[in-house]
Each structure stands twice: as structure tokens, then as C-alpha cells.
Write a structure and sequence with these properties.
Blueprint: E1 2-6, H1 11-23, E2 27-31, H2 39-44, E3 52-54, E4 60-62, H3 64-75, H4 84-99, H5 101-108, H6 113-119, H7 121-133, H8 147-166, H9 175-186, H10 189-192, H11 198-206, H12 212-221
Helix pairs in contact: 1-3, 1-8, 4-8, 5-6, 8-9
The structure holds glutathione.
The site of glutathione (GSH) has 12 residues, from helix 3.
Length: 234
């Protein structure tokens, strides 16, 4: 069976697990701590990063781009009717998403509004670019989930969580992206591709009292008498 080495809130891992879920493949998953990487993991992962995929023959693969391309090559593409040109276009749009995973992580961790705005500039450019590409289909230019949808899922899933918990919408002003986000979330792939404690771990890290979005969360959820519901709030 395929095995994925993971860290709970890693978007690069979610891209891989979302693809496996979309294909309906069984896989094992093992979570590690990135603060204290086990030696067996360092022996397997040349870049010291997750995701690592262990293939059925025991080969360890690293780099999420290489891993998703391997899954497509080895087990058949999500969408088999694409021309080489369409595949290349889809890969390029997928790479753009992955290049913005850490940008989004960093924006979410901003300590104040000015930093959040600065760190969101690159992400907003990517959102504006893909907004222009989106048509009337449910997913990326088709009504079936494809590789571009899988690559953008971690960004859109996280944006939805931030909106729900902190009332801040990274997608404000991008109506087609918002529609795409809704269609993708409706597939259930977002929840299926993360651990059951993902939302708690994600909000604990990105919406803590050390982040602008976390403190905004306090303002959004603070009761009328201005006392906070939890000790960690405000
Ligand atoms: N280019 C890599 C990036 C993966 C990555 O940045 N993973 C992060 C977690 S989200 C990681 O393992 N960080 C630990 C480290 O860099 O030491 C990929 O696409 O797989």
C-alpha cells in the first residue's frame, strides 16, 4: 500500500492526499513532528521535508510536484482526455498554487494588519490571475475534479477556514474563485484529505493570540459584554 509521511497542517501533503482521495486509493499515513524529525525520516527525505510518498515497491519519493506526477503516471490520470498542451497548462497552474502555499502560511501568521497586507500581495496576484482563467464550469474549466483543482484545494480550504473562524476573506473581490471554492468544498475532498484534528491544529497555530487573524477572531466572536469565552482568547 502507498504510504504518505505527513505533518498535520502541511498544504503540500494535502495536495498529495487530496489526489489519492479523489482517485479513491487506499493509503497509510504517518505523522511526524517537524520540530523533532526522526532519523528514519531524514534518511528517506533528501530535502528533510514532507510529503514523502513510499511507493508500493518501497521507493521513497519527495517533492510534492514529483509525487503527484508519479501518482498520475503510475495509476492513471484523473482526466484521461487531455492533450499534452492541456496537461502542460494544467501543470503550470498547479505549480502556481504550490508556489503560494508558504506565502499563504506566512500571511496567516502575520502579527499585525500591515504585515498581513504586505504578505498577501503575492497571493492576491495569483488569485487575480486564476480568477481570469475561470469560466462557468464547476471546477477548473471542466465539471470534473482535475489536477489544478487538487493543487488549489489547500489554498481554498484554508481561506474558507480563515473566513469561518476569523471573518477575514482572502478571496473577497474574486467572485469566480469564491464559486470554485464552494464547488470544491462541496466534494468533501478538503475534509477527507486532512486528519480529524486538522481544523483544531490549524486554528491553534494560525489563529492564536499571536496572530492578527487570531486576535481579529476574538473581536468577531467576543460576546456583547466584551468578556471572552475562552482563556486563550484576547
Ligand atoms: N518543495 C516541497 C516543499 C515541502 C515543504 O515545504 N514542507 C514543509 C511542511 S509544509 C516542511 O517539511 N518543512 C520542514 C522543513 O523545511 O524543514 C514540496 O513541494 O514537497
Amino acid at each position: 500500500m502507498l504510504k504518505v509521511i505527513s505533518f498535520t497542517i502541511c498544504p503540500f501533503v494535502q495536495r498529495v492526499t487530496a489526489l489519492l482521495e479523489a482517485k479513491g486509493f487506499p493509503y497509510e499515513i504517518e505523522y511526524i513532528s517537524l520540530k523533532d524529525k526522526p532519523q528514519w525520516f531524514l534518511d528517506l527525505s533528501p530535502n528533510g521535508q514532507v510529503p514523502v510518498l513510499i511507493t508500493e515497491s518501497g521507493q521513497a519519493l519527495f517533492e510534492s510536484d514529483a509525487i503527484v506526477e508519479y501518482i498520475e503516471d503510475a495509476y492513471g490520470p484523473l482526466n484521461s482526455s487531455l492533450t499534452p498542451e492541456q496537461k502542460a497548462v494544467n501543470r503550470a497552474w498547479s505549480y502556481l498554487a504550490a508556489k503560494n502555499y508558504l506565502v499563504q502560511c506566512s500571511a496567516q501568521r502575520s502579527g499585525d494588519e500591515v504585515t498581513l497586507n504586505e504578505r498577501s500581495v503575492k497571493l492576491a496576484k495569483a488569485f487575480a490571475s486564476i480568477e481570469k482563467e475561470l469560466g462557468n464550469a464547476r471546477f477548473f474549466n471542466t465539471n470534473e475534479v482535475g489536477m489544478v483543482d487538487i493543487a488549489w484545494l489547500p489554498l481554498l480550504h484554508r481561506a474558507a477556514l480563515i473566513e469561518r473562524h476569523a471573518g477575514y476573506d482572502f478571496l473577497a473581490g474574486y467572485p469566480k474563485l469564491k464559486r470554485w471554492q464552494q464547488h470544491l468544498l462541496f466534494t468533501g475532498l478538503a475534509e477527507k484529505s486532512v486528519a480529524t484534528d486538522f481544523e483544531e491544529a490549524f486554528t491553534g497555530f494560525y489563529l492564536s493570540d499571536q496572530t492578527f487573524l487570531g486576535n481579529r477572531n476574538c473581536q468577531v466572536s467576543a460576546p456583547a459584554n466584551n468578556t471572552c469565552a475562552t482563556d486563550s482568547c484576547c
